[in-house]
Amino acid sequence: MSGGNLPPFAEGIFKADGTLAELVGSRCPLCGAQHFPARTHCPDDMAETAAVSLGSHGTLYSATVIRTKPPFGLPAPYAVGYVDLDAHPLRIFMLLDPEHTEDFRIGMPLALKSRALGVGLNGEPCIRPYFTPALKD
User: Any idea where the ChsH2 rubredoxin-like zinc ribbon domain is (predicted)?
Assistant: First the structure.
C-alpha cells in the first residue's frame, strides 16, 4: 500500500500492510455460507456471521474495459471483472489494475494489491484494493 495514512475507500472490505493486502468477508457458523463484502447476519438463516480472511489470490473469470468517464477519480480507461477466489468458493466483482487494463485474460492468476487510487465518497484521496496479474514463479 502506498499513500501514507490515507483511509481505505470503505471500511471492512480489505486489510493492507505494506505491499500485502487481503480481502475480508464473513462466514456463517450454521450453514457455512461465505460472503463478500462481509455481512453481520447470514441472509439464508439469519445467524450472526464471523469475519474471515478471504485471501489475496484468485483467477479471472471475466473482465471488461470501461472507456467512459470513470467514477471516483479512477484513471480512464479502467477495468473491472469477476474473480474466483482461490481460498474460498466465492466469485467477486472487483476493480482490476489500471496499469494493466489491456493485459487481462480469462483464466489468468491474479493477486490483490492496494494503493492510493482515486477518491472516496467524501472526495478525498483513498486507498483502494484491486487485482493485478500474478507474477509467474
Answer: 22-43
